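INFO worker-7 received task bundle
INFO bundle size: 2
INFO processing item 0
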Amino acid sequence: MKRTGSQLALCALLLMFSSALHAAFDVSVDRRNLALGDSFRLVITSTGNEDLNDLDLRLLLADFEILQRGTSSNTNIINGQRSRTRQLTLDLLPRREGTAYIPAFSTDAGNSEPIAIEVGPTPTVEDGDQSVLFEAEVDRTEVYVQEQIVLTLRIQQAINLDNRSISDLQLANAFAKPLEQKSFQRNVNGQPRLVHEVRYAIFPEQSGTLEIPVQVFTARESQARRRAFDFGSSGRQVQRRSEPLTVTVKPRPDAFPGSTWLPARNLILEESWSAAPEQLQAGESVTRTISLRGEGLQGAQLPPVEFVQIAGLKYYPDQPRVEDREDDIGLVGLRQDSAALVATASGNLTLPELRIPWWDTEADTLRHAVLPARNIVVSAAPGAAALPAPDTSAVVVTSPSRGGAVNEARLRLWQILTLVCALGWLATVVWHRRQRGQVATPAADKPKENRAAGRAFKRLQAACASNSAAQARQALLAWGQARLAPAPCQSLATLTTTLGDPDLSGAVSQLDRALYGDHTGPWDGTALLAAVTRHQQAKPTTGAAGDAVLDLYPGSAR
């Protein structure tokens, strides 16, 4: 009983320790740059068991005023595992200009880092009708091609408004993606205002000048009803126009060495393993995941990771995972490439260094995201156990007696029945094969149609018809990957080299000059579409469907 009690106590201690390990603590703000008089939101999240209402918030009061406070909790049960998330939400107002800090908080679930908040001067308004203001601004007026620009359309209202709307954003030679809208309070000249921000992440596709046209805000002033059934009354219509904006778009620098142009605020390259690679044995499999995070980039802009083939190691790539997230500076692109690694023999293996060039738009310089080379020692697989020798002691010699004669008769009967069943099974197999040979299915003789290549080709046709260079490049790469499968095709250079078509190579060069070079005129997709159409109508040069059926993992090393 004592031993059982000590075991239960140990299990309880391990469970408590495990829950502490899985607890998380996070502190975030919705904005880091604001004006004096602007409110912002601080969110404290915990998945532990501590009560966030017990947090000491006195250090906040030195730089901020707490306008509103709220708490929430959420409980989830997944596969029998129960988790609970608690949130403390604070609406804060800065007390002074300059740099203010959200202090570090400490709980049982973890510690947070201080957060710097930049507070600018109080905004002013011009004389005139100040009840509704509408303005547009960009976070930078000079960028590189395909670098992110954040456009903010800001509405300040001192009156109640209904039916608010903003004209659609129409841009030439640029891709715009809406970001999360934000609302907060602002004090202007001692008057409270409600502020709404509509934001876009814009990626120019050509160098030169990007014109952001005038945007129009329309609303109707709310009017209190005078009678219970006064449904038709409405206030005056309000309309405001923003000023047009101009952004200078610079071409890709000649000093950039990579084939994939990556202008970003930051680029982080990391790897993770499903098991310790140092403990790998010959014949065993381990999954390697390489993650790429680009601040100020879309996930589609991030290049695929090329798993370099080395002797003694086979790769079986998985489908990549690409997504976009948001933070206070705009978009953050994420890409994960995973592959199962199988060592074919024991010995020392070296995974080569992975180096991805990118352009630091903050420092305006070339940088590299690097994963250093890794040495792996593969141990020999344990030998198969030897088959046991026959146990002669189990053999019984039957004397020629009446019992032995009966056993021998039964044995002959079972042998005859087994032979009849085997002959019947063999005859069935022969008849079935003859029937298959007489009626051949057309699907067995016809190669499988490459549906992925067909879908990519349709996207390429649409992009070339609209002369959209960026969309054409993405569609062309997807078409090449599907067309050359199972052979790897990670870049357009690989595609042009494999196909060996000078017309296609010239069209791809024109496409790259339009996207990344000092090219001011519009791009024409006629030549590229004509070159790809010839290959789409011809038979695939590699990776025919009949061969691909034999490969368990297309794109893997053989």
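INFO item 0 finished
INFO processing item 1
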Amino acid sequence: MFKKILIANRGEIACRVIKTAKKMGIKTVAIYSDADKQALHVQMADEAVHIGPPPANQSYIVIENVMRAIKETGAEAVHPGYGFLSENSKFAEALEAAGVAFIGPPVGAIEKMGDKITSKKIAQEAKVSTVPGHMGLIADAEEAVKISNEIGYPVMIKASAGGGGKGMRIAWDDAGAREGFQSSKNEAANSFGDDRIFIEKFVTQPRHIEIQVLCDSHGNGIYLGERECSIQRRQQKVVEEAPSPFLDEATRKAMGEQAVALAKAVDYASAGTVEFIVDGDKNFYFLEMNTRLQVEHPVTELITGVDLVEQMIRVAYGEKLAMAQDDVKLTGWAIENRLYAEDPYRGFLPSIGRLTRYRPPEETAAGPLLINGKWQGDAPEGDFAVRNDTGVYEGGEISMYYDPMIAKLCTWAPTREAAIAHMRDALDGFELEGIGHNLPFLSAVMDHDIFIKGEMTTAFIEEQYPDGFEGVALDEAALRKIAASAAAMHRVAEIRRTRVSGRMDNHERRVGAEWVVSLQGQDYPVTIAADREGSDVHFEDGTVLRVASKWTPGDQLARLDVNGEGLVLKVGKISGGFRIRSRGAEVKVHVRTPRQAELAKLMPEKVAPDTSKMLLCPMPGLIVKINVEEGEEVQEGQALCTVEAMKMENILRAERKGTVSKINAAPGDSLAVDEVIMEFE
């Protein structure tokens, strides 16, 4: 077996590979840019080599820099992770020339299947059903428009060498095709160093389902079930699960066998993923093959018991697969939520900064042991597992130079219903502060009726949140639970304040029993009767909620028992109350005496400043292009400028007709969130 491998990547996937390598007794080498000097993967590896400045195109995807690190450390093999150089045939060729093993497929397979245009042709030759599209390269935007009209709108404009949602746009008309072509080319060039673009028909109401394949260099190949990846935003997956709630066994078998046949057609040897688009009648069409480890591989590992990274290393070393297709058993259900540094309340725009608090839920393993998909012992109902793949830590920073993923939170349970329930609890218990993040949105999805029924398509987010995510409006029962909990917590905090030493004489502070709890526009007068075990919170209509908790002032996570049911709240202190986060909702809760509540109603509301005549930078980012000039009249929907952040280009458009009075930024400027880009008359 290899004695030392280099991981040509960063973040959570680098950490993930290091964990398996250590389990196998293999030493690891990390590479890092200036921005990642203190990164978690650098701390976890046995050695680390600096490879350049923060931008990926000056560090992580510079083949010469990575090869230098390999030579310096004497690494025998390289695991590329996903993204960066993972599907770059030139990198695989450089490794082969240097006598270093590539922990991935052969160069020929990468060239044939890694390039999406070539892979489509091979799939057609192998009689795999494919989506209609243009297989050839496209010279310019006008040719893109012509081809789009021939295929018929809507169309998908995609980077040939891309992945992970980068370099992808949906165009519904000629204008969208022109803009999408140029943005896709730019993103592809910046992210992959390859700006080739192709176009295919965009199938409406589709489900995105992919098959995990595993092949060795001895002609053996198997599939390890499927993953449902339909919940996406801008073609970037957000929630994945395995197996799919949509497929039946016959369709699963047909897709799996087709995926393996396609892999064998190119002498594939490693872990790989064949992606399909599936319609409502379970007709499936080949989209592409990712010749690498997928981001969402943990859910497959959780239902099969197969460590895919370990298998990739063993295959690269020349070993035969230790299992056949009949040995693969899908057991239970696994769900993965991708935690991103994106602010859902600001249109999911990227957020950067320091993680002032990062406390993921405790990772747990299911009781029985899974070995090669077979249970060693019983799998009793109620067992579950929590897994959190991450590349960050409390006090670390989220950089503007790389993608915004913070962690991949996974749960496994014997049934889908149980896996969802445990995911809800895990999300509620995930403490994260300092940056904008999508935890509230993920919680909302887990409670959404369409997701619970398993009826989602790739249009789920677009259809269910057409105006963006504005939080969750809690129902009356949930509001009362939070009101009772806040009242009980406030009473505990008040008691502590009465015990502060050094008080003035004759100024004793008394804790009353009557309070008014205000949240989400409603007031709840309550009376508290407390004992050593908890508090009985009485509402005016006679309802009584029993609240028990070991919460103490200052704790940012409150685990409570309300009338015998568990409740987890994220708690932040505000003047006169708390900021509470629960199940996708964020509410300010004020707890006042009856007299304070009476006076609070007389206080004027603070009016936000008028920014309606300004274009504000919606995220920290770099101005790529200014499309207008001072004095120019703009129309509703017109492109005003382009801002790049975390490898994605964002076109900012005019919300209404107006005239540009002042431009405060220029291409190349780095702006903070809410900085004024331009003003209007």
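INFO item 1 finished
INFO post-check item 1: The two ends are 69 Å apart (CA to CA).
INFO post-check item 1: Confidence is low (pLDDT under 50) at residues 367-382.
INFO worker-7 idle
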